[in-house]
């Protein structure tokens, strides 16, 4: 069998899922009637959001070829996972919706594929649509790839052009190269947890072979374990005796802890260990953090169990217990990107029936400080970031302002593709977001690619919505982590009724603190609403109050009115209040609704 390993990469909604399904159907890999559900998309939640979080793979028989289609996640937060999947391939189909043209993820994927030395086959999709302009889209792509490569033209929907594309895959994409008899080396490009069989590891063989019954060794992680089962995906798991050089498949080795299997690690044998691991193994660290607390404090043990269970199957987030003065016992969660926060919170609430409060997400800071004053967090509990800096991933643990010598924040390189008419608006937004201009490139005189360096924190707070609004929805973006840079950021504390509420603290830039403090206080005033007594809402930076709002006490007659009315109205009101309570947390004597804790995300 001749082998071809490839991925399809595309900007979201450009038709990757439809084309994958079409290829599986046309090659008879999957029967037509089974295609009702889009196969490469797994979990229910993913489907609802139209994204694929976990990369998977399918073996396709085409003529006398064995094609392995390796799926990649489609959301910007997962660009690191795309790179991992692409390392398992020799080629990619770079798919572009010809009615839309090149978008930010197209650019990012194209450059990534080229930098990995992969064969790129451009594919113009949706040519069945009358508004499609495959010539224009192809021209845009040539400018990005910096070479004219003839594109395939297909309609994933009608199937037009797909036969030709399959031929192109086997002629253009090189066959895997490696030593079939060498010491085995297989790249782990994904893994998932099966409650019955333990961790299922997805691999691409680069050298040698692996067989059932042998004892594997993970070169980075060090773990050794007997291979209980080995096989390939159709997409169902199909057992076979072993996997040879170039092949893609799965391994079951009775591993119970998903954290001991790291994507990017190399599988070899315990008694025939390879000399060097495969390149590309990078430990990924969470970059965005948020806390969650049960609305009902007695639910804390339930939340712990839920997190343990969820983390068993989803290793892309980390968690650690946390105690907040305001919200009590909860957990600090670390994520790879923004979208994941929502998914994890939703799954916890939905699958484990929990009511949770989540705080505004923030990035990780590296802080250098003296320790003259008393600190909110045990110094020994803080990890080292090198050069005398400590890792601080929670605003509640910021050292007192007088002690701080320097703060570094993470930056990203952001790529934006926008129609030229929105360029000014986009650039103004990037400037507001503390961006630094890097470069710009016009493609096909209607579109422009803009690159900036920007603090990651600015992306975390409402970047996506603003970008959409300044570009009427036409601009798209992709980002990559850059490095930690010194920055004038400050901790802004929020005081409710004179008491600082740790879970409401946010980190912001010094120059923005006052404006944001005002907006935040206004928003909080609105969200908290009137209660039985007057409440002050204040923002404090470096010991100084920078903004204040007063929530007046509820007027007496509002309450009085209720007592006069009939009994059902009164009962209704009481029930309404009870419902409202569910999503409230009492801090001191003030009831604060859940929305208040993410108010930072909602200010303009
Ligand atoms: P993905 O996000 O890249 O996986 O995109 P999907 O495969 O989910 O496709 C996004 C939308 O485009 C869906 O509504 C598809 O039905 C539609 N679509 C995909 N391919 C074609 C095509 O060739 N022609 C037309 N007209 N629509 C398509």
Automatic annotation (TrEMBL):
Gene Ontology CC entries for this record: plasma membrane
Keyword Nucleotide-binding listed: yes
GO MF terms held by the record: GTP binding; GTPase activity; ribosome binding; translation elongation factor activity
Pfam families reported in the protein's UniProt record: EFG_C, GTP_EFTU, LepA_C
Signal peptide as annotated in the record: none
Topology within the bilayer: Peripheral membrane protein
Descriptive protein name: Elongation factor 4
Source organism (scientific name): Elusimicrobium minutum (strain Pei191)
Phylogenetic placement of the source organism: Bacteria, Pseudomonadati, Elusimicrobiota, Elusimicrobia, Elusimicrobiales
């Amino acid at each position: 069998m001749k082998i071809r390993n490839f991925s399809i990469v595309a900007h979201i909604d450009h038709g990757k899922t439809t084309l994958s399904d079409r290829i599986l159907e046309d090659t008879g890999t999957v029967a037509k009637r089974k295609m009702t559900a889009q196969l490469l998309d797994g979990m229910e939640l993913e489907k609802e959001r139209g994204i694929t979080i976990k990369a998977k793979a399918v073996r396709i028989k085409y003529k006398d070829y064995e094609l392995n289609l390796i799926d990649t996640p489609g959301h910007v937060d997962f660009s690191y996972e795309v790179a991992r999947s692409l390392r398992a391939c020799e080629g990619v189909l770079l798919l572009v919706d010809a009615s839309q043209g090149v978008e930010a993820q197209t650019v990012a994927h194209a450059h990534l594929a080229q930098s990995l030395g992969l064969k790129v086959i451009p594919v113009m999709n949706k040519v069945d649509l009358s508004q499609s302009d495959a010539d224009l889209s192809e021209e845009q792509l040539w400018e990005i790839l910096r070479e004219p490569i003839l594109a395939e033209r297909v309609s994933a929907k009608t199937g037009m052009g797909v036969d030709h594309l399959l031929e192109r895959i086997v002629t253009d994409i090189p066959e895997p190269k490696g030593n079939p008899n060498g010491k085995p080396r297989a790249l782990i490009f994904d893994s998932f947890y099966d409650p019955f069989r333990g961790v299922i590891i997805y691999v691409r063989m680069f050298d040698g072979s692996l067989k059932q019954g042998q004892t594997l060794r993970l070169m980075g992680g060090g773990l050794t374990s007997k291979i209980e089962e080995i096989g390939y995906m159709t997409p169902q798991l199909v057992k076979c005796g072993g996997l040879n050089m170039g092949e893609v498949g799965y391994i079951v080795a009775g591993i119970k802890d998903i954290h001991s299997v790291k994507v990017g690690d190399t599988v070899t044998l315990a008694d025939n260990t390879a000399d060097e691991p495969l390149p590309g193994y990078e430990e990924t660290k969470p970059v965005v953090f948020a806390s969650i607390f049960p609305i009902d404090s007695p639910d804390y043990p339930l939340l712990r169990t839920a997190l343990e269970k969820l983390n068993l199957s989803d290793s892309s987030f980390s968690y650690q217990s946390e105690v907040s003065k305001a919200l009590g016992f909860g957990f600090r969660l670390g994520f790879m990107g923004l979208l994941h926060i929502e998914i994890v919170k939703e799954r916890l609430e939905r699958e484990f029936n929990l009511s949770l409060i989540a705080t505004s997400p923030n990035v990780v800071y590296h802080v250098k400080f003296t320790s003259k004053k008393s600190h909110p967090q045990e110094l020994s509990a803080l990890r080292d970031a090198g050069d005398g800096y400590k890792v601080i991933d929670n605003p509640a643990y910021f050292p007192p302002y007088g002690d701080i010598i320097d703060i570094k924040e993470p930056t990203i390189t952001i790529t934006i593709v926008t129609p030229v008419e929105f360029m000014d608006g986009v650039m103004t937004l990037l400037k507001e977001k503390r961006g630094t201009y890097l470069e710009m490139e016009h493609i096909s005189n209607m579109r422009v690619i803009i690159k900036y360096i920007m603090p990651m924190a600015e992306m975390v707070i409402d970047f996506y919505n603003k970008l959409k609004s300044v570009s009427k929805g036409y601009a798209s973006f992709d980002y990559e982590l850059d490095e930690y840079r010194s920055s004038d950021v400050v901790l802004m504390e929020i005081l409710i009724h004179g008491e600082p509420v740790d879970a409401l603290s946010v980190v912001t830039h010094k120059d923005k603190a006052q404006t944001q403090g005002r907006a935040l206080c206004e928003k909080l005033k609105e969200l908290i609403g009137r209660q039985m007594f007057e409440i002050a809402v204040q923002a404090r930076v470096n010991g100084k109050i920078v903004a204040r709002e007063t929530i007046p006490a509820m007027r007496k007659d509002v309450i009085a009115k209720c007592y006069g009315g009939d009994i059902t109205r009164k009962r209704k009101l009481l029930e309404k209040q009870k419902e409202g309570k569910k999503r409230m947390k009492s801090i001191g004597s003030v009831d604060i609704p859940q929305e208040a804790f993410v108010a930072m995300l909602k200010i303009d």
